[in-house]
Write a structure and sequence with these properties.
The protein is an alpha+beta fold. It has one domain. The chain is built from 8 helices and 7 strands. It has a 4-stranded antiparallel beta sheet. The radius of gyration is 17 Å and the shape is globular.
Length: about 220
């Protein structure tokens, strides 16, 4: 994630509005954290352990330096140990049906998208004995939907997308051609048009394929 922040900071395409790395630091062995999580009933798959980063969170909010471009990027992504502590509470702050609250009470915040977005959250559902928590994307004014990725996939794609608002819908079972997603579709198309030029070391073909599959 530090790589993604650095790429945004160094690119002339972006105007960084906010950047912060939370407490923590390199050099600390996270084995003890994984052992405590396992003792609490949440063993982690090895691929997720490998994706662990030592800071509690890393946050970035940017807009394009060109005012004619309309993209916005935003993330405040947490590491695994910080996320499991951040439950999605109080539920009364969200416009959900009462029948949804059982599921919502099991969610922990993974990515707080509140500076450049309109209240979106990416969350994780840690289930006892399950080695890879489910990833759910929430918009408190719209809906919630499970994403077709795990924690490590989420971080990998956050690095590639730089947190463009709505990139998560590329991993959701939705039709982006529906009118309600018109702004999101425009932003994703812009991202896939300009990012390959600015970040040639990243492969945007899989995201392009996912976009086409949802039209």
């Amino acid at each position: 994630m530090l790589q993604s922040i650095r790429e945004v900071r160094e690119s002339p395409f972006f105007d960084v509005k906010y950047e912060k790395v939370g407490p923590g630091g390199t050099g600390k062995d996270p084995t003890g954290i994984f052992e405590l999580m396992a003792e609490d009933g949440f063993p982690l798959a090895e691929r997720l352990k490998e994706a662990y980063f030592p800071y509690r969170y890393m946050a970035l909010h940017w807009t394009p330096s060109d005012p004619d471009e309309s993209l916005v990027g935003d993330f405040s992504v947490m590491n695994l140990s910080a996320s499991i502590e951040r439950k999605l509470l109080p539920l009364d702050d969200f416009a959900w049906y009462e029948s949804d609250k059982a599921l919502l009470s099991e969610l922990s915040i993974l990515d707080d998208i509140s500076r450049g977005g309109s209240g979106q959250l990416a969350t994780m559902r840690f289930l006892p004995g399950v080695s890879s928590p489910e990833i759910w994307y929430l918009d408190r004014f719209h809906t919630f939907i499970r994403l077709d990725l795990d924690y490590r996939d989420y971080l990998d794609n956050l690095i590639i997308t730089k947190g463009v608002i709505g990139w998560q819908y590329l991993f959701a079972d939705v039709s982006l051609s529906d009118r309600e997603f018109s702004n999101t579709l425009d932003d994703l198309r812009t991202m896939l048009r300009v990012f390959p030029e600015h970040f040639p070391d990243h492969d945007y073909a899989p995201l392009q394929q996912r976009l086409e599959a949802r039209l």
